[in-house]
Amino acid sequence: MINLEIPKKLQMLVTQSNQVANEVFRPNSRKYDRAEHTYPKELDMLAALIDGMNESGALGGAGAGSVSQGANASKNGSGNRNGSNMASLLGLIELCWGDVGLLLTMPRQGLGQAAIAAVANEEQLARFGGKWAAMAITEPEAGSDSAAIRTTAVLDESDPAHPAYVLNGEKIFVTSGDRAELIVVWASLDRSAGRGAIKSFVVERSNPGLKLDRLEHKLGIRASDTANFVLEDCRVPKENLLGSPEIQTSKEGFAGVMQTFDNTRPLVAGMAIGVARACLERTRELHSEAGVTVDYDAPPHSQSAAASEFIAMESDWEAARLLTLQAAWMADNKKPNSLHASMAKAKAGRVGTDVALRCVALCGAIGYGEGELLEKWARDAKILDLFEGTQQIQLLIVARHLLGKSSAELK
């Protein structure tokens, strides 16, 4: 059984995250939406504070860099676990209630750290832990189908003292790629070997072979830079390959790499939940000021159209929230959660976009104007249905799991 109340040991984390969202993110939300590609200096002091709290244990292991399959989880009274996955999820929901773009550009909190935490060995965790790591997967011809990656990695041992992989290719839509210290790059050791040859490599942002092509201008999350890179004979130390260097069978090899998504998809779902909650709460406030009330003791059809629609949106949001909590709880309890991670990501991504747009509509001209953050949240929400695997690819993954079909059998 899952207790759906917030665990007492994580209550302080939730409260503190909400304070950050309310006192730092919300006041600067519009500022950095307008000043695209300008680094939010206010985050430096906040990042230092979070580092200190993490070291003291006050945050309960929250943060993308600490997410893992049940690692460092502690038992509660029922014998179940609420560990780093649940802590990270609950914190992210609150922070994205404030501003998802500012959350995505928080120093040392990139999704690349989740990839490192998922498959790195102890020596790599010691070297890369605590650094700001972005994740580079998408290519011009490889989006939701990660197996179509064309970036190559060739081992060069001509200098026995400094063996290195040489990476060549192009990566696009790298969140916070230009600001991060490390880039986790997905590349293939042998494109003819299929999925089993795809590995992840940690590349220093300062590596001369990693060249910034451009920064994207975007619909939403403008506070967070989105970079495109070209890798030209980019030499990466051999020991920077994450996981086994062996080319395995397609199922085994690619499954190890894809474990990253089992960790991060619930987090992205949590981001959508946070944005949607912000929309719902502000819409309720505006409607209350206009004299529109929601009566939860009366049937929806007996109330105004606005109140009825609001109740429907809230129930949809609650379903997405519970699915996401379940996926994080399963990870903390070392239960296979690939199906549930994709279900949560698909549901929350769609709910986030749907709720944001419907809230704008319910608030009319007020919701559409820049006098309210509703229009910004509607723009921000869309990316949460796209990155970490689009709505369509999540539904395909869910179908494969439920029907017992392979990727070759169900495309």
Description:
With 411 residues, the protein is of the alpha+beta class. The protein has three domains: 8-116, Butyryl-Coa Dehydrogenase, subunit A, domain 1, CATH 1.10.540; 132-247, Beta Barrel (Butyryl-CoA Dehydrogenase, subunit A, domain 2); 251-403, Butyryl-CoA Dehydrogenase, subunit A, domain 3. The chain contains twelve helices and eight strands. It has helices at 8-34, 42-56, 84-98, 100-104, 112-119, 122-128, 250-289, 305-332, 338-362, 364-368, 374-381, 391-403, and strands spanning 133-136, 152-156, 164-175, 182-188, 198-204, 210-215, 226-237, 241-242. The strands form two sheets. The protein has a four-stranded mixed β-sheet with strand order 1-4-5-8, covered by helices on one side. Strands 2-3-7-6 form a four-stranded antiparallel β-sheet, with no helix packed on it. Helix 3 (84-98) packs across helix 7 (250-289), helix 7 (250-289) packs parallel to helix 9 and helix 7 (250-289) runs antiparallel to helix 11. The model is unreliable at 69-77 (pLDDT under 50).
Task: Offer a few descriptive terms.
411 residues, alpha+beta, Butyryl-Coa Dehydrogenase, subunit A, domain 1, Butyryl-CoA Dehydrogenase, subunit A, domain 2, Butyryl-CoA Dehydrogenase, subunit A, domain 3, 4-stranded mixed sheet, 4-stranded antiparallel sheet, 12 helices, 8 strands, globular
Structural class, from helix and strand content?
alpha+beta
Query: What's the helix count?
Result: 12
Biggest sheet, open or closed, and with what strands and sense?
4 strands, mixed
The helix content is 40-55%
* Strand order across the largest sheet: 1-4-5-8
* CATH architect. name of the largest domain: Up-down Bundle
Provide the CATH superfamily of the largest domain.
Butyryl-CoA Dehydrogenase, subunit A, domain 3
